[in-house]
């Protein structure tokens, strides 16, 4: 093993830095479109079936005013599409239970009090709870936003106590229907999610192997590959099927990626890319003959990788004051409450949209929140304009349902391209869904949504600046220490790979906070380079 360069000395005393608003509040590229997500159509189609079928039944039976409650359960179908089916079944059960519980709290609040201020406070607390829970569980898109939208809308829907059992039964029934819809593909492709996860890792490793040595983009490519490989191993751990055929491909991808420092390998890159295409197209799993060392790694892969699921105690700890998720939960609760109350002060009687807008602004750090605030505002205002243009044709129930379903497909198809474009479809869909239960005058609805959007984005962004997360620097330091300790030990590839991913994520988060002290950039870059070199040595050494 080659001798690694010495690490810069450790230290906790970092110089304070002056806010660089051009770095924290960037403008360039904010509205640029990216490639669409590879499986956007799966949640889109699941959502259309889970929401559309109950809507049609309600339309035929003359009870379309109940569509808000069936939609609440049906929207659960948007979750967990990247997970193996056994894990998806468990996760979807928690999604449905969480949606039902939040909707129950909101509807009960609506039935018990007419105070808009109290309703805003309840929804703000729910928004914070969903944000912390989804971030801690790493549940992925659409994360907390759908939960917050449904519960906020329910809190401002006219409700009587005697209606609660029936309405909540509809939420639960359609939630179970959504659960079934998300598990139906297991009949056709029982190992589809695992194949997709490995295909993504193969493609990432293929792209890394094609970079010339010394290319400035190689460091970022290493991180992308490490994240994809880690996600693939987690998917295989969660599977109840024999992981060995796919694990052999994944081990080979790790070996090819580890050798990328020695220069591009176009033949290996093309082979990995071809295997990735085969897995995506549902063909047979390519057969890879592992060497003795790779076979040994295969036998120990399950034991070497970190646990695939977080237990209930870990989730409970995420809500504690010492948790890394607690500061952003405080941001969400206070920011959403302030947005709703400011909107009320400006004359909006049902300010749930301001609360939802504020909730969407809160992401990992101030820089990303600034991006999200601008994107949300542009998308919402464009969506409100689209809703206004569609008003003449959406008075009929059939066209109303059709527009909602088309917008849902559009949102899933475009959200990964840029948040503002996805919001353009989400906004008219959300406005029409609220019209099912409590129709409003179009002019009043449009004016209130414009006002709520601006208030929610502005107040949410102010809260991001005003309520700091003082722990991001400490978490970056701790992640850096874990990488350096793993380098010193030099005996556990899985531990080192995980530590490198966590370091880059925590450093990126800390770098986007305008008030934090300066990061030890030299030490971080040195640790990442030494870590990736050691990871390559450990991987290629194991494969010989």
UniProtKB/TrEMBL annotation:
Keywords: Cell membrane, Membrane, Transmembrane, Transmembrane helix. One of its GO terms (cellular component) is plasma membrane. Its main location: membrane. The keyword ATP-binding does not apply. It comes from the Bacteria. Belongs to the YccS/YhfK family. The chain crosses the membrane at residues 56-80, 139-156, 168-188, 352-371, 383-407, 419-438, 450-467. This is Integral membrane bound transporter domain-containing protein. It is found in: Cell membrane. The keyword NADP does not apply. Residues 339-462 form the Integral membrane bound transporter domain. It is a multi-pass membrane protein. It comes from Nocardia aurantia.
